[in-house]
TrEMBL record:
This is Acyl carrier protein. NCBIfam families: PRK09184.1. The lineage of its organism: Bacteria, Pseudomonadati, Pseudomonadota, Betaproteobacteria, Burkholderiales. Pfam families: PP-binding. Coiled coil: none annotated. InterPro entries: ACP-like_sf (IPR036736), PP-bd_ACP (IPR009081). Residues 18-99 form the Carrier domain. It comes from the Bacteria.
Length: 102
């Protein structure tokens, strides 16, 4: 193992939004009519409850929009939902792993 490589968590700590995070931030703001600019959503801030303040209905709407836009299903019975919707960054990581090649 080389000590010259940055730790994997270094990417997780980046305060700026990635391109996909920005796309998802725009989707969140537009689909939920949030009164915040997409760029103001902190990638690691919680989406649910504290942080952005989304509730379960908001999360369902986001799941529908993500499914439509990225071509894969986010299921309400997925045991990973709490992890997937933990933050903008965790949602973006899930979308990056699962989106269709359209």
């Amino acid at each position: 193992m080389s000590s010259t490589q940055p730790p994997i968590s270094a990417l997780d700590d980046a305060p700026e939004q990635s391109a996909l995070e920005n796309e998802l931030a725009v989707l969140l703001v537009e689909s939920l009519n949030l009164e915040i600019a997409p760029a103001e959503i902190v990638p690691k801030a919680p989406l649910y409850g504290e942080g952005l303040g989304l509730d379960s209905i908001d999360i369902l709407e986001v799941a529908l929009e993500v499914s439509r836009k990225y071509g894969f299903q986010l299921r309400s019975d997925d045991e990973r939902n709490q992890q997937i919707f933990q933050s903008l960054r965790s949602l973006a990581a899930h979308v990056a792993q699962n989106r269709g090649d359209s």
